[in-house]
Amino acid sequence: MHAWPASEVPALPGEGRDLQIHDTATGGLVALDPGPVARIYVCGITPYDATHMGHAATYNAFDLVQRVWLDTKRQVHYVQNVTDVDDPLLERAERDGVDWVGLAEQETALFREDMTALRMLPPRHYIGAVEAIPGIVPLVERLRDAGAAYELEGDVYFSVESDPNFGKVSNLDAAAMRLLSAERGGDPDRPGKKNPLDPMLWMAAREGEPSWDGGSLGQGRPGWHIECVAIALDHLGMGFDVQGGGSDLAFPHHEMGASHAQVLTGEFPMAKAYVHAGMVALDGEKMSKSKGNLVFVSKLRRDGVDPAAIRLALLAHHYRADWEWTDTVLADAVARLENWRAAVSRPDGPSAEALVEEIREALAHDLDAPAALAAVDRWAALQREAGGTDEGAPGVVSRTVDALLGVAL
What we know:
The protein is α/β, with parallel strands linked by helices. The chain contains 13 helices and 15 strands.
């Protein structure tokens, strides 16, 4: 599966800052010091309805991570999946009377278009669950043969008790885990499971649903968590720098995935930092496909909204914060974009050296994009009120905003 084209990232003078970022597992900031190649895995979409502002906010956060690392002259090995076979996709296809494969391809193509418009840097590897199945089957077989998985009516489940470090990503108690498991794709009440929290690794073929040859596992399809584990281990290995996604993925998805990988490899942890973006709401409720309260990037673009303004609307909120999309949020972003473009359109202006370092410092401290935006606002205000004599300053500001914030002025 191919990703989307990359926009050019301007090189900036001086040196970038190493990233400190909030780690869900430890509950505090961790200083990341990757080698020459920083490694990041971000969970992708299930392509039955893309791309709403919750998606965009999540991928914007991890785009900033990439940009901070690139500014330190590192390479970035970024991997993202597409869950192109799963119950919600099949249910939507059946509801609409369309082929599930065609639906997945259509929505994935739209996602690519949205990411390109928003200037999100693409992953090096963009992998669909279906194409990953040949690598998933051997992992499930290894877990089963090691006694870390068991069969139940043809399905194969992972035993969470096989991982002594289970629970160290989300740090939730058993009651909270069971509740979230039921809400987020698990089946804690299924009779016969060794532990209600045990997640499915391989689902035996169901009538009328797609299935693949699972070797000794029989016909079926993979569970959600093992999909990402297979892709991450194949392309990044253990101990990669950042596992990313929305905050609703901390449990069960990232918790279960970490346990799968840790049992498979005997190593801990799977990732050095588990980083989670906040949720975006509309009319007081979290945007979700089940509720239908979605604001789509593609719809805003069709309505003539500049993608740079959409990106500024995302950047105005700290990535870990839960926030609400409103008409005012968008109007403020449109006004900010106009103000910034007017400021950099002049041939000279106030010196931008301090601004570059202020933006770097803000982003290096847990991706504080609102502080970075405020710094540019102050420079633009000086430009508007007093101007300046530095002929190169507007160009430096424009390149910095592009390189570090992904906004083309």
